[in-house]
Amino acid sequence: MKNLKHIFLFLTFFVSLFGFSQTTAFSETFESGNSLILVNGSQTNKWYRGTLSGYCNGIQGLAISNNNSTYQYVHTTSVVHAYFDVAIPAGATSPTISFSRKVGGESGYDDLRILSIVNSTTPAAGTQLTTSGSNRVLLGTIQGSAVCSSTSYTLPNALAGTTRRIVFTWRNDASTGTTPAAIDDILFTYVLPSCAVPTSLTSSSVATTTATISWAAASPAPSNGYQYFLSTSSVAPTAGTTPTGSTAAGTTSVNLSSLNLGTQYFFWVRSNCGVTQSTWAGSSTFTTTIPPPSNDACSGATNLPCGTSGLAGTTVGAVSETAPNSSTLGTMGVWYSFAGTDQQTTITVVQSLDTRLLVLTSSTGACGGTYTTIANVDNITSSNEIATFTANSGTNYFVYIGYYTNGSNTGTFT
Questions:
Q1: Residue 110 DSSP SS3
Q2: What pLDDT, in 10s, does the model give residues 269-305?
Q3: What is the DSSP letter of 159?
Q4: Could you tell me if 124 and 43 are in contact, meaning their C-beta atoms sit under 8 angstroms apart?
Q5: 409: which of 32, 211, 221, 245 is 20 to 30 A away, CA to CA?
Q6: Contacting residues for 317 by C-beta, under 8 A, at least 6 apart
Q7: Which of 156, 19, 162 is nearest to 94 (CA)?
């Protein structure tokens, strides 16, 4: 016993030294009650909590009985379940179910199965759970072992951040067998970093150069707040990566500024516990917006005096709208305008984006009237769209440039 104590003290020191602690998530000894859900239905042999002979420890336990008073079963086909739910937090490792048990029955036909399933699945009396399927794990099958012993199973670490339903299923056929299943002293534990990991990273209020990032607090909350790392690369930070910034204890959001336009950002967050930090949570991502061009709407049309050349244009960031007088023109366009002078006028668009050029007049002489199309040009054999016409004196002309066909493609031109 002395040597065992030394081993325990060493393990405790080892766990604390490396920043991990074992947490009990579920415990049931059955001495003062039963917290498992029993699914017995009308089956002949049922799970029963009470004072029956044959329990491994203490006075009370959970066992199969055909009369709710005796640890025995009759040879009438039965399938019954007992289960509990357990939440495994993000960052937890080594989720483990342990219990005492003895299981007799007819070897090869009567058994106790232990499964880990999603908590939205409810087992039914008389029906054996399948041992395969989405998020379903058969932890073990016990039979032909009427001697009391301890058993434990470790679930995959990938189940961290989920709630699992642990099911004990007894089944027997109509043949022979003695001493059914009895279980006692159930314990579910996992190992948590002493500096727990934050969860649920999100972004909001994303604008041209600003955004807000937030997350759900770690449990327990870190004493020194949180650190975050922001990058335009999806490559995750390491334990030694210098954080972009930090927050005070209890603060779970950051308002970012001085960001680049139209840029995708990735971010990670970790708890800062002073001496130690948690692993990084993430990544999550957001993309900053691009402001619309100043001539995005007709009301902001750029003036085109006669002789204008080399004028840089863009539809990047334009707000979607229905193009005037054209059902095939892209929805992201920009506007220009000029006054006619009774001279032949040529408008040339040198495109990087495959554009269509519309020249229009308005029934009101201003934006928003009924438009008449003077030119509708989509040159498929050249990189230039050219419209030549006589611009009448006293008439205002409007030029609309967008993607050559339906769609939201954007780009630049001159």
A1: coil
A2: 999 988 789 999 988 999 998 888 888 888 888 888 7
A3: G
A4: no
A5: 211
A6: 262, 289, 290, 291, 292, 293, 296, 410
A7: 156
Assess contact for 215 and 269: CB atoms under 8 A.
yes
DSSP state of 53: T
Please, are residues 97 and 83 in contact by the beta-carbon 8 Å criterion? no
Distance between terminal CA atoms of the chain?
Answer: 87
Q: Residue 40 has what DSSP assignment?
A: -
Q: Could you check whether the bond before residue 220 is cis, i.e. omega within 30 degrees of 0?
A: yes
pLDDT tens for each residue of 110-156: 999 999 999 999 999 999 998 876 678 899 999 888 788 899 999 99
- The count of C-alpha atoms lying within 13 angstroms of the C-alpha of 333, restricted to the half-sphere facing its C-beta, is 28
The per-residue pLDDT for 245 is 96
Tokens of 247: 């927050």
pLDDT of residue 107 exceeding 70: yes
What percent of the chain stands above pLDDT 90? 44
Say which residues have a Cβ less than 8 Å from residue 179's Cβ, sequence separation at least 6: 54, 71, 72, 102, 103, 104, 105, 146
DSSP character string of 118-142: ETT----TT-PPPS-STT-EEEEEE
pLDDT at 8 over 70: no
Q: Residues, the chain, total?
A: 414
As a whole number of angstroms, the distance between CA 179 and CA 61 comes to 15
Contact 397, 374 (CB under 8 A): yes
Rounded CA separation 89/21 (Å): 13
Residues 200-229 have a mean pLDDT of 93
Q: Which position has the token pair 């029963």?
A: 48
Q: For residues 207 and 210, what is the distance between their CA atoms, to the nearest angstrom?
A: 5
Strand ranges inside 325-383, DSSP E = 333-339, 343-350, 355-362, 371-377
Say how far apart CA 411 and CA 406 lie, in whole Å: 15
One DSSP character per residue, 70-109 reads SS---SS-EEEEEEEEEEE-TT-EEEEEEEEEEE-SSTTT
What span, in angstroms and rounded, lies between the C-alpha atoms of 334 and 351? 14
Judge whether 372 and 361 are in contact, CB under 8 Å: yes
H or E stretch at 412: strand 412-413
How high is the mean pLDDT of the chain? 85
The first and second tokens of residue 374, run together, are 């003077």
Asked whether the predicted pLDDT for residue 61 surpasses 80, the reply is: yes
Compare 58 and 242 and report the one with higher pLDDT.
242
Give the number of other Cβ atoms within 10 Å of residue 233's Cβ: 10
- Residue type present at position 127: T
Indicate the DSSP class of residue 366: S
